[in-house]
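Lecture notes, continued. The same structure-token format from the folding unit now serves as the input rather than the output. Read the line below as a description of shape only.
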């Protein structure tokens, strides 16, 4: 029996352990946090059964991807890039709006975010460029130009509907270039350009948001407010600017507010998240005993970390954070043992993507970052995003299983 399990769950055992811990925590906490879905659907078991089915599909995908030699991933990269660009352009036209963002494509039986496919595709492409252009002294100077040319359009299309995902992906690609030994002079210039670009983006967001707000306010003849918002959204591809502006201002406005004056209707996510964390103490209320899940919007997705802390306490919150840290550092050890640079860069890029997204989600939940709408990878309730994240784990396991290892005698000093 153990031999059969070892044949199925091959690859690095620590990565598998972290993965299963995240899966178990996800099932427990999503079951607890889905009270609003249970009420809407009038089904007690419906939401968690669906979540478990998605995870079962994800685990199967993890095993399938793990058994594909990582060298073969290069073959599918061009197809994934073409598919990603088609979907990203498609979502700008008939994209299915969810939570004020037209970032979804609805195909009837399934709906998904093209950005989820684009993220993995770009990680694959960047890893190939950096590995193909390695020299004795680091990456060739042209590597950065190729990467920026390839990634610029994708990140711009993602950023129109999902600015936080675009920023997250940009940060991961920059870290991959640093790991891939892109010359430091080029990296310094790139970081300087990004600093200037961020200032321009913030100024543009503030300007567009104020103009959009004035135009909506001027249409006072319309009786249905939602109709006004929909009409405003159709005027410009930057219809999310007002949301970005609001989130930035809410985060930067740190002026103390007395509890009795805090408007929970206006800032329900921030308010109920803080209440959940503050009422947790060290050990929490216990699994299934959350109170704020009934009031916190997106308790099973964007703010599930607050529910985890409420139920499992500060200790549980630290344990979940450590799982992502272990995933990142263990992947680093796997990458360090690789003989070739492509599997090493691919594994590190995917691990950085998962860890960075987890960090953003947790920082939002505890009030250290503005609300971004990033789910907690492999824990938050999701559909295609959960399956794709499982495939990322499968790719990391594939690297640990199939990548050629450095000659051990080379590391032995005499």
């Amino acid at each position: 029996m153990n031999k059969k399990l070892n044949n199925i769950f091959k690859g690095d055992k620590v990565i598998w352990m972290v993965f299963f811990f995240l899966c178990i925590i996800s099932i427990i906490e999503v079951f607890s946090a889905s009270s609003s879905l249970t009420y809407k659907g009038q089904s007690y078991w419906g939401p968690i059964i669906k979540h478990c089915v998605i995870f079962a599909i994800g685990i199967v995908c993890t095993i399938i991807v793990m058994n594909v030699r990582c060298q073969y991933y290069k073959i599918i990269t061009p197809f994934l890039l073409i598919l990603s660009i088609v979907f990203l352009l498609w979502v700008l036209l008939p994209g299915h709006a969810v939570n004020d963002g037209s970032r979804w494509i609805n195909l009837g039986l399934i709906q998904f975010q093209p950005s989820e496919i684009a993220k993995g595709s770009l990680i694959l492409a960047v890893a190939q460029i950096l590995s193909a252009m390695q020299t004795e002294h680091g990456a060739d100077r042209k590597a950065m130009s190729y990467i920026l040319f390839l990634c610029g359009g994708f990140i711009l299309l993602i950023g129109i509907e999902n600015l936080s995902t675009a920023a997250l992906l940009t940060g991961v690609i920059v870290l991959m270039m640093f790991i891939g030994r892109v010359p430091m002079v080029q990296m310094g210039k790139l970081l300087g350009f990004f600093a200037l670009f961020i200032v321009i983006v913030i100024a543009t967001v503030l300007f567009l948001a104020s103009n959009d707000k004035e135009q909506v306010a001027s249409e006072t003849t319309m009786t249905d407010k939602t109709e006004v918002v929909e009409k405003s959204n159709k005027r410009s591809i930057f219809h999310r600017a007002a949301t970005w502006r609001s989130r930035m201002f809410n985060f930067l406005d740190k002026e103390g507010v007395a509890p009795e004056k805090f408007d929970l209707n206006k800032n329900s996510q921030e308010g109920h998240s803080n209440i959940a964390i503050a009422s947790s103490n060290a050990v929490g209320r216990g699994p299934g005993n959350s109170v704020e899940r009934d009031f916190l919007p997106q308790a099973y997705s964007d703010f599930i970390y607050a529910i985890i802390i409420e139920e499992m306490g500060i200790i549980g919150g630290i344990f979940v954070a450590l799982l992502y840290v272990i995933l990142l550092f263990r992947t680093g050890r796997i990458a360090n043992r690789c003989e070739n640079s492509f599997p090493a860069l691919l594994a590190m890029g995917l691990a950085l993507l998962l860890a960075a997204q987890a960090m953003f989600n947790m920082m939002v939940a505890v009030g250290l970052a503005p609300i971004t709408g990033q789910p907690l990878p492999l824990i938050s309730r999701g559909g295609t995003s959960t399956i794709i994240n499982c495939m990322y784990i499968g790719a990391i396991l594939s690297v640990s299983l199939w990548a050629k290892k450095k000659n051990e005698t080379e590391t032995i000093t005499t």
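Point for the exam: Residues 208 and 261 are 30 Å apart (CA to CA).
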